[in-house]
Amino acid sequence: MSPLDVTTLNQKFAIPGQLKFTEDVNGLIIACIANEQAQSTISLQGAHVMTFEPVGEKPVIWLSPAAKLVRGKSIRGGVPICWPWFGAHATDSTFPGHGFARTVPWQIVASEVLSDGSTRITFELPQSSIPVAQWPHACQVRSIVTIGKEMTVELITENTGQMMFEIGEALHTYFAISDVNKIRITGLEGCTYLDKVGDWQRRTQAGAVTIAAEVDRLYVNTDSDCLIVDSGHKRCIRIAKRGSLSTVVWNPWVEKATKMGDFGSDTGYCGMVCVESANAAENCVEVPAGATHSLHVTYSIEKTQ
Ligand code: TA6
Fold it and tell me: Can you tell which superkingdom this protein's organism belongs to (predicted)?
């Protein structure tokens, strides 16, 4: 089934006063959610949450001021879905980094208001969007996004074929922070990480994670919650995950951010940090034929003095 046009989407899935679909100048379709608890925008390309702002709260998710909504290109910021591999493909360098899921059209299969007033949308990756040369496996992939005073994203992979397959994945979430010099990340103390900046050396995290240069770390074998403790915004952002044994912490710092060119300004990197709930490296997931795997994350705010 080819992705629906914006008029049909509004006829089938809009929720008066909560959810509507719009089309931007490049023809990309955006789900716009505004309920009594929060506002959010989600691109149907990649089922990519771009913004999330609880009522009365500063934005939780960072979206680059220079983010480009271009068909087939990843969006800088938000919650990119990295699937069915994380990072470079294991054997073919011509395949897209972080998989293809974040740059292809997804479709809507359901929208609903939950009893607590939050809005839930279910996205599905249509077979027509899956490049069979890169991923020759029968599967059903869905992302269920719930927008309320908290946000949850659940990435569900069902193996509908006859053979086991293995996936790498991540919700590559960019968080809005007061200043990279005013935060620390807790929950990873004592964990082993692969240090991409240090030639993938395996190291052990001592204490909270602080950032004073480029940081690109894949923490393995950890199912812990992480907290971004932001003294500037006097708040913590809690990242509570299930079905994920890897956590990635990334800030490109000035040189790499400038080279990437889509962080908005020379200091754009100061206002963001990625804490990614993933399954990568030794935590890649084998999904047997007929089985279903879920990666589920809840993002919430805790105020501090
Ligand atoms: O998750 C960290 C990372 O793998 C970094 O190494 C950097 O490549 C980042 O993802 C962004 O990747 P992207 O393909 O979105 O530019």
Answer: Bacteria
Q: Is residue 3 predicted with pLDDT exceeding 90?
A: no
Known catalytic residue: 276? yes
Ligand 1 binding pocket mutation candidate from 70, 73, 250 (most atoms within 8 A of CB): 250
Of 53, 172, 282, 293, the active-site residue reads 172
Cβ neighbors of 207 (< 8 A, separation 6 or more) are 189
pLDDT tens digits for 204-233?
A: 999 999 999 999 999 999 999 999 999 999
Q: What is the pLDDT of residues 80-112, one digit of tens each?
A: 999 999 999 999 999 999 999 999 999 999 999
172 is catalytic: yes
Contact 81, 168 (CB under 8 A): no
Q: What angle do CA 109, 278, 85 make, to 5 degrees?
A: 75
Which CATH number does the domain 6-303 belong to among 2.70.98.10, 3.10.20.740, 3.20.20.140, 3.40.50.1950?
Answer: 2.70.98.10
196 CA: nearest ligand 1 atom? 6
User: What's the pTM value of the predicted model, to 2 decimals?
Assistant: 0.97
As a whole-number percent, the residues of the chain with pLDDT over 70 amount to 99
For the chain, the structural domain boundaries read: 6-303
Residue 87 near ligand 1, beta carbon < 6 Å: yes
